[in-house]
Amino acid sequence: MAPYAKELRVASLAVQRATLLTQRVFHEKVKGTELKSDKSPVTIGDYGAQALIIAAIRHNFPDDAIVGEEDSSSLQDNTDIRSQVWNAIKSTRLSSESAEKELGGSIKNEQAMLAAISAGSSTGGSKGRFWALDPIDGTKGFLRGGQYAVCLALIVDGEIEVGVLGCPNLPVDDQASFSADISDAEGHQRGVLFAAVRGHGATSQALSDDDLKQPKAIQMKSPPSLADATFCESVEADHSSHGDQAAIANKLGITKPSVRMDSQSKYGSIARGAGDIYLRLPVSQSYEEKIWDHAAGVLIVAEAGGIITDIKGKKHDFTQGRTLKKNKGVVAAAKNLHADVLKAVQEVLDAKQ
Ligand SMILES: Nc1ncnc2c1ncn2[C@@H]1O[C@H](COP(=O)(O)OS(=O)(=O)O)[C@@H](OP(=O)(O)O)[C@H]1O
Ligand SMILES: [Mg+2]
Ligand SMILES: [Mg+2]
Ligand SMILES: [Mg+2]
């Protein structure tokens, strides 16, 4: 059996099930967005997806630790939000009975739901197995009907071994034009699941496939020259520096406008050759990137043949706890472009000193 086959299967089904919940929450316009202490939003969708995914992991891998973005503290006394999360969870099941059974079936009650959400509190680290979980990455994108991703990765002794990204609003077709705009995907079936196991390549397949047994290999594209390259970046200007990124693109002779897209959809998109470069230059010196915002995407891009480093050219270090405190930013590109892109990043940053 291929390494981590069970982990890949459980992670893929768990992410698929969570996207059923997030899509339902979006389409039914379930209200109940809160602001966290850092003023970032958290929704019924974030809590519900975290509970469903953790329940599936604990059923299959009871000894594994989980580093999840959300915690249940604000649900303990907010009964209104809590019951909305519970209603969303109760009515979410995979259509395949056997797949639902593989995940351990439904969560038993509200207490079990709160316990599952709270089980994402591991501090991670350099030893043993843990899962990094972002139940909705790009929550702002999710709220505005843009791109978002349900992200899950398994890290073993500091190495990312398995990565899965569910992107309900990206086209299934790997050849579809690269755009964050959902209306551009009209005529295209939407909802794609990206996955990778270290050393075994990266794949994509339709999220709607009941049994998820149709993965197709994906590959980064290598454009003949930098001038032909397309780069992508965050939508939110406080998450990465649009100004520095524009200066880098300019230096590289890139003429096409950037594609602004929320979430790890950026990693999935470049991994399948829809774009060529992802730049995430820090805005603030103090912000530490979170491991769940990168783990799955970094493995998927690497396994599709790309190179991903921080702005200094260092590999991201997932052994440092819940954040990537030893790294700043992200520079991801096809193998033949990465060295030139990194050089331009450093020239732009040095010129600011
Ligand atoms: N200051 C700052 N700098 C860098 N990154 C930050 C910052 N603040 C938040 N975040 C994290 O960004 C996650 C969203 O990812 P993106 O930036 O790729 O998408 S977006 O366009 O901004 O939505 C977002 O993930 P979610 O909270 O899961 O949506 C945040 O964890
Ligand atoms: Mg968040
Ligand atoms: Mg995130
Ligand atoms: Mg999130």
Automatic annotation (TrEMBL):
Keywords per UniProt: Hydrolase, Magnesium, Metal-binding
Residues involved in Mg(2+) binding: E69, D134, I136, D137, D293
Entry GO MF terms: 3'(2'),5'-bisphosphate nucleotidase activity; metal ion binding
Catalysed reactions, semicolon-separated: 3'-phosphoadenylyl sulfate + H2O = adenosine 5'-phosphosulfate + phosphate; adenosine 3',5'-bisphosphate + H2O = AMP + phosphate; adenosine 2',5'-bisphosphate + H2O = AMP + phosphate
InterPro entries membership: DPNP, Inositol_monoP_metal-BS, Inositol_monoP_superfamily, Inositol_monophosphatase-like, Inositol_monophosphatase_CS
UniProt entry tagged with the keyword Metal-binding: yes
CDD domains per record: PAP_phosphatase
Regions annotated as coiled coil: none
EC number: 3.1.3.7
Swiss-Prot/TrEMBL GO biological process terms: inositol phosphate metabolic process; phosphatidylinositol phosphate biosynthetic process; sulfate assimilation; tRNA decay
Family annotation (Pfam families): Inositol_P
Source organism superkingdom: Eukaryota
Cofactor: Mg(2+)
Function (record text): Converts adenosine 3'-phosphate 5'-phosphosulfate (PAPS) to adenosine 5'-phosphosulfate (APS) and 3'(2')-phosphoadenosine 5'-phosphate (PAP) to AMP.
Record family assignment: Belongs to the inositol monophosphatase superfamily.
The protein's name in its UniProt record: 3'(2'),5'-bisphosphate nucleotidase
Lineage per the UniProt record: Eukaryota, Fungi, Dikarya, Ascomycota, Pezizomycotina
